[in-house]
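Workshop exercise sheet. Pairs work together: one partner reads the sequence aloud, the other fills in the structure field after running the prediction. Swap roles for the next sheet.
Pair: D.N. / O.F.
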Amino acid sequence: MDVRNAAINALFEDNPTLSGFAAPQFMPVAEAFVANFRQHGEVGACVSVIHQGQTVVDLWMGHENPAKTIPWQAETLLPVFSNTKVATALCLHKLVDEGKVELDAPVATYWPEFAAQGKGRIRVASLLNHSAGLPALRRRVPHAGFRNWDFMVEALAAEEPFWEPGSTNGYHMLSFGWLVGEVVRRVSGLSLGEYFDTHIRQPTSAEFYIGLPRSEYHRFAPVILQTPSFASLLTNPFLRKIVFDKTSLPFLSLVNSGRFAPNKPIYWPAHIGGAGGIGNARGMAAMYAPLAENDGSLLSQDAVERLRRPSMESQKDLNLGLPTRFSLGAMLRMDNRGPTKQARSLLIPDGAFGHTGIGGSISFADPDQRIAFGYAMTRLGIGFFANERGQGLVDAVYQSLN
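Structure field:
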């Protein structure tokens, strides 16, 4: 133990911007975190691990800005993109636990306008597992449309499904938040952000927001966008369609966004439940901690089972164009490794559940090992799944357990 303590102390001494805490057993996580800066171009990042109800890793390092003039702080917050989907899903599962929503009921039971365009039989569960057939809007989203909740839910209610609902899945990249969130709003009477704050964030003390309060604006760190290489465009079916087919699901899902830009303050207070969450690694791990313990304190054990059990699997997701696996609201283990398939996997154990955010952030719970994990960073990678930075940290967690 003394040797491990000395090694951790040396790691901090050798890396002046490294701050926080790592238990000796989890030294591999700290080493992998530092290696991301030395070997993989990390600019600013944070990682947090809770094991058996105790925080064993809480680290941050680097800078908030590309010029590297503003040090990363313990309180730094940043966009975590699709990690927000699980936060949104937890709200709906809470209402299911309370007997206020039935997953097999038609969405129109709670949201009558949704029945338009032949959608009357779409079940609530299909909103959670990406099989509802509504991953995008055909109509053009006006500038800053993502800030207008009423516009987005009315447009989705009026939209015709892109495929037979419930038959297969296609990643609902951004629409997920308004679809699930409107059911939460109709049933609870609260906006998605208000419900999440009251029933999920406050009970877990998570530093995670769907709609950032103005009082927290000073903590925001902007993400650093990456331009995909030409080779990436050719080998990635999703990116290729964006470039060459402006009527495709990928284009409509990602580009038809009213010029959504996560670094712009006009979007920070918006309740964008599919990809607009702002938090940090500590906040994501805290949100998952009671689910990793599966003690019924946040959601029932039945709800946790729904989150960790496959609900929809496909060899070719109709939006992403590759194999995907979803539970009712979360990503599950997706092993799409191969020589031309980098950053298209999420290698967590079977039985664990969570999500990635565009560019590589990760959060998940593993009830079998009682692990809650969060990782977020400013420099985005290419793709929607784990890259070498985040996956290296996940691998280091399980190396520490073994």
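Discussion prompt: The chain is about 35% helix and 15% strand. What would you look at next?
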